[in-house]
Amino acid sequence: MKIAPSILACNFLNIGKELKMIEKAGADWVHLDIMDGHFVPNISFGAPILNAIRKISALTFDVHLMIEDPKRYIEDFVVAGANIITFHTEATNDIVETIKTIKSTGVKAGLAVKPDTPIDTVFPYIQDIDLVLIMTVEPGFGGQKFMHNMVKKVELLAKYRKISSSNILIEVDGGINKDTAKVAAIAGADVCVAGTSVFQANDPKEAINALRAICEI
Length: 217
Ligand code: DX5
Ligand code: ZN
Prior knowledge:
This protein is α/β, with parallel strands linked by helices and 217 residues long. Helix content is 34%, strand content 20%. The protein is built from eight helices and eight strands. Strand 3, helix 3 (74-79) and strand 4 (84-88) form a beta-alpha-beta unit. The chain binds D-xylitol-5-phosphate and zinc ion. Residues 6, 8-9, 31, 33, 64, 66, 137, 139-140, 142-144, 173-176, 193-197 line the site of D-xylitol-5-phosphate.
């Protein structure tokens, strides 16, 4: 199980230190939630922030675009240092071209689905992408409660991955803590995004280790 703390839950006054802290604490990736105030009812940060923190971090930058017209901004995020770019199936009519644009830059491509979007929406693209992100909360805000009825989607995708001989990673995002990470791992998830449960923990290092350990039992 890979653990990807979401920087959205960090103290932005100390973003550089917070990033170093999770890197030292053993995070596998850092998850970067990009929100535009249109696709989701919240605004977070953009490529200039990635560009700044890229200089001090060797972590894999896992960029989650919650924005309309994602294709338009791919280049900005690639130049700023993204390693994986995931966009929402609901955000564009141009899924194939958007995947192609990401892959043409050498960066890994992911597709994300909101809670109301059936998981078979991503099946036609499974051979062209590297990752599927299953939202386990409504996108837009950290600190929400894990939606247990999303576990079925993880199971269905894991099954489809097997029969289609694909090796995509399955990422779950929203409301992840020790209990929900375990449920997601059993269902077939490979990557857990965790904001609140890491950054608000008394000991983030312990929180990261605990998340990983619980998924290996
Ligand atoms: C929600 C974001 C998530 C979120 C995770 O729109 O995609 O990455 O910040 O935060 P927690 O772990 O607090 O639910
Ligand atoms: Zn996210």
